[in-house]
Design a protein that fits this description.
alpha/beta, Rossmann fold, 2 domains, 6 strands, 50% helix
């Protein structure tokens, strides 16, 4: 089985490459490192439906007591309450670490119609404070590789069932890239020269820039040419001869 880990700035074409790779392998599995974050966020969001929402430390501690149950359901990890459940004292004394969570709850208080909605790619901006809190909080409590580690567990399950190609999007740090590479994967950096990078001061964008890659796809041509790059990349990965650079502008469009 082949594993492709994708990294690159927001809006530079990682999803387009992933979609193209899937086009050329109908059995491919496409995972994003934020998937388990989204799953936990939806579980916590669903818990709020039957609750009187508040941003008080007492309410938050009570609400999050189900976090170990959700982790057990959606992830391969098994945790104890003391591993992940913040105490009232922690919520009071470390408000800076939990500010995004409080912001999310204040938004839910002011907009009750948002409670219980399924968080997805179309509305995630509304719920970004919750997603960001879960992402950072779980890293602090369970370790830097908690998210990509979960994704790799899903890749192993897929491989055990005869999977042929796993595509992992959203690599944000060198340790994440190393985990993919240690599993035999190839790390691919997608770059669009004519598109400025966004959120360059964000911590995850800073660590992403430090990632060493095995191949670079320069997204400077048509969508069809980018598809051609993806096909050539896949063929080279399977042949064990990955090139350093794949230039879309000079790619030959594949014939169906």
């Amino acid at each position: 089985m082949n594993i492709v880990g994708l990294t690159g700035a927001i809006g530079h074409g990682k999803s387009a490459i992933a979609n193209a790779l899937q086009h050329y392998d109908s059995q491919a599995l496409h995972l994003e490192t934020n998937m388990p974050i989204m799953e936990l966020a939806n579980a916590l969001q669903n818990d709020l439906i039957s609750m009187q929402v508040s941003s008080s430390p007492e309410f938050v501690a009570s609400w999050l007591c189900n976090l170990p149950i959700h982790i057990d359901r959606y992830m391969h990890d098994t945790v104890l309450p003391e591993d992940v459940c913040p105490t009232i004292q922690d919520l009071r004394e470390n408000t800076d670490q939990h500010q995004k969570l409080f912001t999310y709850l204040e938004t839910m208080q002011a907009n009750p119609d948002l409670v219980g909605a399924t968080i997805d790619a179309d509305n995630k901006e509304t719920y970004r404070p919750l997603l960001q809190w879960i992402g950072g909080y779980m890293i602090r409590r369970l370790g830097l590789l908690v998210w990509v580690g979960e994704i790799m567990e899903r890749v192993r399950d897929y491989q055990a069932n005869g999977g042929t190609l796993a595509i992992i999007g959203g690599l944000r740090s060198q340790p994440e890239a190393n985990l993919v590479r240690d599993a035999g994967g190839v790390v691919v950096y997608v770059r669009r020269p004519d598109t400025p990078e966004r959120d360059t001061s964000d911590a995850t964008e800073v660590t992403r820039k430090a990632i060493t890659h095995d191949a670079m796809v320069i997204n400077n041509g048509t969508l069809q040419q980018l598809d051609a790059c993806a096909l050539q990349l896949l063929q080279d990965i399977r042949a064990g001869k990955v090139q350093a650079t794949y230039d879309a502008a000079h790619a030959t469009e594949p014939s169906e």
